[in-house]
Amino acid sequence: MSLPFYIVDVFTDKKYAGNQLAVFLDAENLSSEEMQKIAREINFAESTFVTKLDKENNKAEIKIFTPSQEMMFAGHPVIGTSWVLMNKIFDNSPDEIKLNVPIGPIAIHYKEDLIWLKAAQPKFWDIFSKEDFTLFSNLKNSDFENQFPIQEVTTGSAFVMVGLSSKRALENLVLDKDKTNEWLKKHCKTSHQGLYFYYLEGEKLFSRLMYIEHNQLMEDAATGSASTCLQAYLLKNHKPELELINFQGDYMGRPSQIHFKGKLTGNEFDIKIGGKVQFIAKGEWEA
């Protein structure tokens, strides 16, 4: 069976930066096991599989896989897949589409040269001590931002928000793989476990996403799902309206820019992230 596929770079205004994504079409007859094998073969942070396509109504259903597991929601795959559908698949390049992912429908729109998604309502889980992190990293107590809690947050995928006190601490961050893995398995509530370190300087936001996959310490170039969690976290703890750019991937040679536009009204979170997408390649995959 032959599957058409596209490769794009997400959350970047130039090629060969941002986060890579493979988008596979006509995947309705693939099993989850087959999708997982393909995602492991291509070995990007995530790959998506379009399992239903409604061109008449500009809707699609997708499944998202890392090289090791299926994701219920992930930002850069949703943004990148939406760009492919809007520009390569749907007629007349629509400005609005809907994607169904395992957590439910995601509204997508194109505005001012950016693809935007609106995230689900967040949940705020456990709060952790900064002393925990000094046990499996090179961070000292003075390296932590002390205004906001270290907390696990989810909008469909969960991440632990860890605020740092300087850009230097973020740049020089080192984690012990085995101790990090042990801590994540002990404390995080879901099978997808990641630490989102950030430094907020005025209206500038810098971040790094670290996680364990296939017994390796990994870093992600641009993490949309973690960005929706971080936006919710900042709306709750920092200020109830935000519009800024989250810079990620700088320390791994794939600079990325994730646009935030959010508002908290009462208990209702309006969380939007946006980014640019660069077309890289297309081809046929022999499944």
TrEMBL record:
Domain of life: Bacteria
Database matches in InterPro entries: Phenazine_PhzF-like
Family: Belongs to the PhzF family.
Protein name per Swiss-Prot or TrEMBL: Phenazine biosynthesis protein
Organism of provenance: Flavobacterium limi
